[in-house]
Specification:
Elements lengths: L2 H29 L6 H20 L3 H14 L7 H30 L16 E9 L3 H11 L3 E7 L4 H5 L6 E6 L11 H4 L7 E4 L4 H9 L4 E4 L4 H11 L7 E6 L3 H10 L5 E6 L5 H8 L3 E5 L7 H9 L9 E5 L4 H9 L4 E4 L4 H22 L1
Parallel strand pairs: 1-2, 1-3, 3-4, 4-5, 6-7, 6-8, 8-9, 9-10
Length: 379
């Protein structure tokens, strides 16, 4: 990983630290006043440990030490003075979060070496200097075109005169990308829709002509990308960029609901390693939380005191960098006209309360994944 990528990741992580500390503080505070199940303590310990590991990777020593002590306190959940210990840590976390937000984050961020990503003057996108490009074609001219376009932009290009789909799908080498000539693929009468929408292994097809027939043929052979020749480096790298959106970290989900009980239900429903959750109960602080947490999807309550979900969504949409941020409305509102009004304000979907756990997870993952892919392409 380059210094520029590391710096960008570190800055982004540091901006989210106060939000995570406040989340841990709130959970600890609740745990001091109610009977706590062991599984809930272990779930919190797992979240704390995950953030602590990220702190270690980003060289955040002070935060790492604090979370290490918290993890140790959580391991003592069966001791008599557990609630007093958790209460103390809740206050410490909130205090530390506030101080980081006011001065620590900015100060720490200034210490990080900031350097711009390597930009190819022709392509305008990041280089793939450690990527091996495998090109399967029996047409020497096609190989030469792609090799010439990608010269100096990838580690190397390797020619294959055949393509074995079984071998390809049973191996998952890192930092390698396969480009396959459409003429090497078999014709399939009808594809399996379930397989088509669950493609995982990146496979990019190319052809001499760009038409629907070739694109459908590529898709039925489990292709995840397509371009037509002749193609310049920009067109090829654009396809590679679209393939490189793995879930390397949990999807960030923000829940805006003034009801703490309702928010807790959503948090519990989305409690898996797939998601990192930020709960917001005060609608007047939403913009600040969005800036800090950088969510990839927002679940928005519609009726709230002081300001409505429609108003908040309209405000968010006025900020250019949040123009494409998915906002899903959650409400008991069954009036179709009001639901349409919410969508016109900038929502992407409307779920009637109470949504099922399965539906929440589906929408959270669907829209977060799409937003991450879109952000990768736009950046």
């Amino acid at each position: 990983m380059s210094n520029s990528v590391s710096s960008e990741a570190q800055n982004k992580f540091l901006r989210r630290v106060p939000v995570k500390l406040r989340q841990f503080s709130r959970l600890l505070d609740e745990m001091t006043s109610v009977d706590v199940e062991v599984l809930r303590v272990k779930a919190l310990a797992s979240q704390v440990n995950k953030v602590r590991e990220m702190c270690q990777e980003q060289d955040c020593g002070q935060i790492n030490s604090l979370l290490g002590e918290l993890n140790q306190a959580l391991s003592q959940y069966d001791s008599a003075d557990t609630r007093d210990i958790w209460g103390a840590y809740s206050k410490n976390l909130m205090s530390f979060s506030n101080s980081l937000e006011k001065e620590g984050i900015a100060h720490r961020a200034n210490e990080i070496e900031t350097s711009k990503p390597a930009i190819n003057p022709v392509v305008g996108k990041k280089k793939y200097e450690d990527l091996t490009l495998h090109i399967a074609t029996n047409n020497p001219s096609s190989f030469e075109q792609i090799e010439k376009a990608m010269k100096g932009k990838v580690t190397k290009t390797v020619l294959h005169d055949d393509f074995d789909a079984n071998t390809f799908h049973n191996t998952r080498p890192e930092r390698e990308m396969m480009l396959v000539d459409i003429d090497l693929l078999k014709s399939i009468e009808m594809g399996d829709d379930k397989l088509v929408v669950n493609l995982e292994r990146p496979l990019i097809c190319f052809s001499q002509t760009d038409d629907q027939v070739n694109r459908i043929k590529a898709l039925r052979n489990f292709a995840t990308g397509f371009f037509a020749l002749p193609a310049d480096a920009e067109k090829i790298i654009e396809q590679i960029e679209m393939q490189n959106c793995p879930q390397q970290e949990s999807y960030r989900v923000l829940v805006m609901d003034d009801s703490r009980a309702q928010a807790k239900f959503y948090e519990k429903a989305l409690s898996s390693d797939d998601f990192e959750i930020c709960l917001v109960n005060d609608p007047t602080t939403l913009l600040k939380e969005v800036e800090l947490f950088e969510p990839e999807v927002i679940f928005m309550d519609m009726q709230m005191p002081k300001c409505s979900g429609v108003e908040l969504t309209s405000v968010i949409r006025q900020i250019p960098k949040f123009m494409h941020l998915p906002i899903i409305f959650l409400s008991a509102e069954e009036n179709l006209e009001k639901q349409q009004l919410a969508l016109m304000a900038g929502g992407v979907a409307f779920l009637v309360k109470p949504p099922s756990k399965e539906l929440l997870n589906f929408y959270a993952k669907l829209y977060s994944k799409r937003y991450r892919m879109l952000s990768s392409c736009l950046n």
